[in-house]
Amino acid sequence: MTTASLARHRRHILQRRIRWIVAATIGYNLIEAVVALSAGALASSGALIAFGLDSTIEVLSAAAVAWQFTRPDPERWERGTLRVIAVAFFALAAYVIATSLLTLIGRVEAEHSAVGIVLTASSVIVMPFLSLAERRAGRELGSATAVADSRQTLICTYLSAAVLIGLVLNATLGWWWADAIAGLVIAGFAVREGIDAWRGDACATSVGMILEDGLLREPGERDVTR
After folding, report:
1. 45 φ, ψ to 5°?
2. pTM of this prediction?
């Protein structure tokens, strides 16, 4: 098998891997959304409801990447898919900011939710693995959309952790405002990632990958990609 054939074979493997990772992300987030929205409604928890809606946004982002990698030429759809991911970031940030401010202003106190605690704890464990797997495959393939979607998944991991901390503090200490404060901080990261993704391939992920490669490269080692 020639070098070119090996390269095409490797790209095919990476594209298939990304499709499987994205499919797993979509499946998990659909279950997460249903459970979080149901538990949030029962406990009158704005944080859990926001968490469930965030899961639907993650499904949108992952679905956009899944659609891209079903195309014969995925690279052709790179920029448009990045825009979809950017909008998902902005929507996530807007909703988290709105719900957090409403919680703080209205002093909304939610009931204890054991289901919510178990769900968010599970997400803190599962989502980083999905994010890392997609990021590695996307970096090797040179796909900005896969890397951007992995960042979206990582932001959702942070949100899961924030909601989990808020639910635990509310249940144990009565600190109803904890998850709202954490949500505002995470929203700031989501806005930043959304801006990067909207700017496109050169700013969203390619520069980040170049910088990271430069940091990881040994002193004096040449960049063989040039």
Report:
1. -100, 110
2. 0.69
Report yes or no: 94 and 184 within 8 Å, Cβ to Cβ: no
Would the pLDDT of 2 be above 80? no
pLDDT given for residue 212 in this prediction: 41
For residue 110, give the DSSP letter: P
**Residue count (the chain):** 226
Nearest residue to 57 (alpha-carbon basis) of 135, 139, 159: 159
CB 131, CB 154: distance < 8 Å: yes
What is the four-CA torsion angle of 147, 149, 150, 151, rounded to 10 degrees? 90
Give the pLDDT band of residue 86 (cuts 50, 70, 90).
confident
Q: Cα separation of 90 and 208, whole Å? A: 20
Residue 154 to residue 206: CA distance in whole angstroms: 18
**What's the CA gap between 222 and 201, in Å, rounded?**
24
For residues 214 and 173, give the distance between their C-alpha atoms in angstroms, rounded to a whole number: 46
